[in-house]
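User: What would this chain look like folded?
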Amino acid sequence: MIPIHNRSDKQDNTIVIHQLEELTDYDFTKAHRHAYFEFFVFENGGGTHMIDFEEFKIEPHSAHIVAPGQVHQVSRDLKSKGFVFLFSTSSFQSDKSIENFLFDHICLGVHEYAPNYVFHSVIAEKIKLISKNAWEEFKSSNDLKELMVKTQLTELILYCMQNGKNGKLELNQADNDLYILFRRELKNRFRELRMVKDYTSLLNVTEKVLNEIVHAKTGESVSSLIYKQLIIEAKRQLNGGASSKNIAYDLNFNDPGHFSKFFKSQTGISPSQFGKVHE
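Assistant: Here's the prediction, encoded as structure tokens.
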């Protein structure tokens, strides 16, 4: 069963930092999910990081963003080290550009919005210094340490935003805004809404217009993205040990048989086969 880690109510608006030190043995952490963000900063690279069933190399001077709900598993090499920041979007509600950037990581898949950022030369040194300063502030008894840590995490996130490797195709502003709004509605409503017309009604556009925008951005149709959202959630739950019956109920399928047929038609394997591969 994949554990889902939550934070206490007192920590919701607090940023917590853990140091990732060099290992004395190979690090193997079981796959798990969080109800909050984890922002990894790797000073030394080595190893792999699986995020939503896709593997990313842990490179020197890099950052990885794991969004709430994503399944992830860190396998670091012996000499890899750095820091991991734990926080919630509520920490950045007053910073709309950062809140939107983080929310996109929640809504968009790792293929579309890559969670890894690699920094070079001068920027890499800045990232290293900011991370260490944040760690020192976090450990201090300074009355302003929470604000200082938030300021330093903000700077780290801004460097990721500046890195700008996500969003390979930029639409005009109006179409891009509509696309992002659709993805956010999909993330929030995919359990009960799975028809294209459900979303066009919400967004007050025609099916033709929405399909054209989605295809221009992703090369796929609206229905394909709806199905992918259902599949990634099903995979997360299967990897956590949930039964097909419970997943079918959670995702509002008529019965487990209908869910199993849908899953196999989209992935090529049955839910039970997927569970065995990833157990």
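The mean pLDDT is 90. If you want, I can go into more detail on any region.
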